Sequence to fold (304 residues):
Amino acid sequence: MVLVMLVGGVAGLGLVLLVSMFERGSATGAAGLAQIDAARQRGRRQASLTADRRHSEESARMRRVGSELRGALQARGVNLPPSVRADLGMTGQSVETFLAQCLLGAFLGLFLPFLVLGPMALVGGISLVVPLWLTVFGAALGALMPYSQIRRRAEARRRDFRHVVSSFLDLVAMNLAGGRGVPEALQTATSISDGWAMVRIRDTLEAARLQGTTPWTALGALGDELDIDELRDLAAALALVAEDGAKVRDSLAARASSMRRKELADAEGRAAARSQSMLVAQLLLCVGFLLFLTYPAVARVLGA
Fold:
């Protein structure tokens, strides 16, 4: 009975996926224009990504599957949270590839427990209920694994990006002190390094120049996309320079100094946490060694 229910559930899931893949709801004119604008914005964002440009055959297939899945989700009003989109933008991975990885992980987690434990359940070693429950947990875990990986990578890259932004603020302040204007100071500051974060800022400023937008507007948009507060603050400060003529050279230097102090405090906190974890590991080793030494004597006493 349980096997019949499992086969029926898998068949029903496949039927739902098949119907949702080919079903397209009718959209109004305004909704269609909004979808076209969203597709154009995605194309511009994809052109600025640097970590997802390896167009192998496997990644191309993953993007096609993810594009279909994203279109189906957006047609039903389902979008990724802003935090997930910011993490994807930081790591340079497209939303389509991320959705395809989540779908692949869910399928692997769904079928792997049943393939491993199914033969044991058929011969009567365990109950069929155990593989069924494990498939549900496996599907949820497999779908969440890409998100956890993206989250860890994004946090590491965001720390590196903040370090680069602090140096970038110092360079912009020095160029402003040398008599350069804001656009020239920004372009000169980005030409110092070829690191991935500085290249990302340089590409953003170049795209703003070609599109006819202001550099501080582009930096603010990049800060919103990557969830970097320091870039948003820099954009606001540069906008004050352009609109009100405020002297923010000292303010930029102070911001850079405060960012470095914050980074130093964070590094000290991470080092202290790792020291505590090493201390716990050493205590566990000592406890194990003491148990190893005292076990023969305790076993002899209890045996006697």
About this structure: DSSP finds eleven helices and no strands in the chain. The CA atoms of residues 175 and 185 lie 5 Å apart. Confidence is low (pLDDT under 50) at residues 47-58.
